[in-house]
Write a structure and sequence with these properties.
Helices cover about 10% and strands about 45% of the residues. It has four helices and 20 strands. The protein has helices at about 65-70, 140-150, 150-155, 200-210, and strands spanning about 1-10, 10-20, 20-25, 35-40, 45-50, 55-60, 80-85, 90, 95, 105, 110-115, 130-135, 140, 160-170, 175-180, 185-190, 215-220, 225-230, 235-240, 245-250. The strands form three sheets. Strands 1, 2, 3, 4, 5, 6, 7, 8, 11, 12, 14 and 17 form a twelve-stranded mixed β-sheet that branches. A five-stranded mixed β-sheet has the order 9-20-19-15-16, with no helix packed on it. A three-stranded antiparallel β-sheet has the order 13-10-18. A hairpin with a 2-residue loop joins strand 15 and strand 16 (about 185-190).
Length: about 250
């Protein structure tokens, strides 16, 4: 099932994507889904970020090739950092480049959306707490990341976490293609089977540190090939079995 969040005619809500239509549901997507009976053409609605999480927890250096392109080795244990919920935008929304940022980088990733409260979840049961998966771009002010050493400022600007186009609930995350294209040119290509720490292991690790709430998002890491974006660039992140998330880079006034 593909769960989207949409806006149309002053209405904001959740719906299930069925071909070229959406079927509106009456509340949130956590638990049993109940349809209102309202259907709309997909082309006639604006797709929003599929979820606004209480928090976004991201994995650092979780692909070996990316760790090495950043000048380090893959970590023995997971490295996590956080992005604020205010960094979330949806498909076709602008990524705003602040004037203070010298190098703005893309990082295409598989994102995990948590479906129920999770605390100290063992890896063998970790997928039970997942609602589904979506595409993400962990936008990074690379020069500020290098200057600050830690990640908060570089990863936390408004619009620095595009998510979408929807949440796919029926998906095995163990071996999916993850690609990123800049202006139609392939820049990143990896598979989730190459993750240093698998999706279940990541969920288990994070839920041992902090309680995960329904709607929280985990960014699982980015393959090698990250690089800069400038105003006017179109950046697309595609994950096998989900779809493509596309955003345009705009200078922030």
């Amino acid at each position: 099932m593909r769960i989207a969040r949409f806006s149309a005619d002053g209405e904001v809500g959740f719906a299930v994507v069925e071909g070229d239509e959406i079927a509106v549901i009456d509340t949130h997507p956590f638990g049993d889904v109940t349809f209102t009976g309202v259907r709309r053409p997909l082309a006639g609605v604006r797709l929003l970020a599929p979820i606004i999480p209480s928090k976004i927890v991201a994995m650092g250096r979780n692909y070996a090739d990316h760790a090495r392109e950043m000048g380090s080795e893959p970590p023995a244990s997971p490295i996590i950092f956080m992005k604020p919920s205010t960094s979330v935008v949806g498909p076709r929304d602008a990524i705003l480049r602040p004037a203070a940022v010298g190098q703005l980088d893309f990082e295409g990733e598989l994102a995990v959306v948590i479906g129920r409260l999770a605390r100290n979840v063992p890896a063998e049961r970790a997928l039970e707490v997942v609602l589904g998966y979506t595409c993400a771009n962990d936008v990074t002010a690379r020069d500020q990341q290098r200057a600050d050493v830690q990640f908060t400022r570089a990863k936390g600007y408004d619009t620095f976490c595009p998510l979408g186009p929807w949440i796919e609930t029926d998906l095995d995350p163990s071996d999916l293609s993850v690609t990123t294209s800049l202006n139609g040119e392939l820049r990143q290509k990896g598979r989730t089977s190459e993750l240093v720490h698998s999706v279940p292991d990541v969920i288990a690790f994070i839920s041992g540190v902090m309680t995960l709430l329904p709607g929280d998002v985990i960014l699982t890491g980015t393959p090698a090939g990250v690089g800069p974006m400038v105003a006017g660039d179109e950046i697309s992140v595609s994950v096998e079995g989900i779809g493509t998330l596309t955003n345009l880079v705009v200078n922030r006034g």
